[in-house]
Sequence to fold (297 residues):
Amino acid sequence: MNEVISSTLQSPSKGLREVWGWFDVSQDDRVRVSGLLPLAEQNIEAILEEFYSREGGYDRPGGDGPPHGMQDVRDEQRRHLLELFEAGLDQKSFQDRRRAGLFNENYGISPSFYLGLYTFAINRICDLLRQEAADEASALETEKALRKAAACHQAMTIEAFSAARSDAIEQRERQLSELPTPVLRLQAGLLLVPVVGVLDSHRSRLLTMQILDAIREQNARAVVLDITGVAAVDSMVANHLIQTMTATRLMGAHSVLTGISAEVAQSLVKIGVTGEALNPAGDLERGVETARKLLER
Fold:
């Protein structure tokens, strides 16, 4: 089932035929839609102008993409809309949908805005179709074909957008996980380790080695591990933290954990992690104070 669902964006020859079928778009439907290309080309500028002149028709794209203006966005949207009327099954059609989704993600175009513009444009094309039709029954069939093809087109673009968004999130998480974790000397015998980002198995091992090396090199007797910047704490992360703090104590140093939020505390309780295992001390200020008292013993 997963292979079938994911084939839309993975296999141009097979995936596009499948997705056209999912939306009940026949060969006759595709021919009818292709025949509307001259009508769309003649009116696309007026349709875009009408959309953007309406109240709520203006959208400020944002995000972390390259510098751009609204004209760049409108030019790309014009191309996206006209691609519908090609109704193709080839590599170009496949790549066009991927590119449209990537564009929306990179340029900060929200799915709601994209779908709103798309729906507005299709409605206007259908209005023009009915106005110019000599055969009302044929025009109705063509309109049905257009709406089915448009729904398919939108779905593929949103799927590509979703994939691009997931890739971007994974890349940011990977970048955060690769950030070096500093081991700071607050005073003689006291170290502070602020952790930011994702704490996976690989990074946890590196973190433990960094702390143990710093304890040995600086003759530290207390370590404050601050996880305020850790995105989430599940059972795997909790086990990593317990192992790190246990290794710290085996090196002869006290360990204090700070930065546990209310949500994280509830998650830890649900998976059976106790305070004794982590030696928590609330926020960073309280953690440093606790560590200094431990040094005085």
Notes: The chain is about 65% helix and 10% strand. Residues 1-8, 59-68 have pLDDT under 50 and may be disordered. The chain has two domains: 2-176, 184-296. The longest strand covers residues 222-230.
